[in-house]
């Protein structure tokens, strides 16, 4: 083997063992969100629509946290721990379990001079609503609420925007809760996927330097 070819091989991964790997699972959450939105739209079973909507919401909420965590892990693997850049990414990684998605987003945004989290503008505003809905479902309180009453303002606003309201008479045993009304709407998962997909499509621009 001539010296030039040998040097080229040394500059690549050719023949070298793989020490570790990481699957970009955020893409699976995004695909899952889309799939459950499609299933909800095509189902004629009320309970199935609620189940598909719930799964769509959870996948959407998980997508962004996975995406940011993957970004931090890539930063760690790309820089040696003896370098300042490497030390800062490792600090972020050590804080992962203690921080919210929004806090982790801002750590990386500050480092890359990207867009900081702004709950009053898109796509952050819609994600806050999705995250709020996810939290209410995953940590379900079982609270007794009145007709068309939602557990918080974000969910109430979402119900209004989707024109979701109780169709029950609220007499004797004919009533409904925000859970059955909102999760029974086929428009819900369509809205969730469209918003999280818009976030995904704008991700690079949001992370790019503003200078």
Describe the structure.
This protein is mainly α. The protein has one domain (25-207). The protein is built from 9 helices and no strands. It has helices at 3-10, 26-42, 46-78, 84-95, 101-112, 124-138, 153-161, 178-183, 186-207. α3 (46-78) packs parallel to α5. The longest helix is centred in the N-terminal third of the chain and has 33 residues, at 46-78.
Q: Number of helical runs? A: 9
Termini separation: 48 Å
Could you tell me the mean pLDDT? 91
| Major pleated sheet | none
Strand count? 0
**Order of SSEs:** HHHHHHHHH
Q: Which helices and strands appear, and what pairs or packs with what?
A:
Blueprint: H1 3-10, H2 26-42, H3 46-78, H4 84-95, H5 101-112, H6 124-138, H7 153-161, H8 178-183, H9 186-207
Helix pairs in contact: 2-3, 2-9, 3-4, 3-5, 3-6, 3-9, 6-9
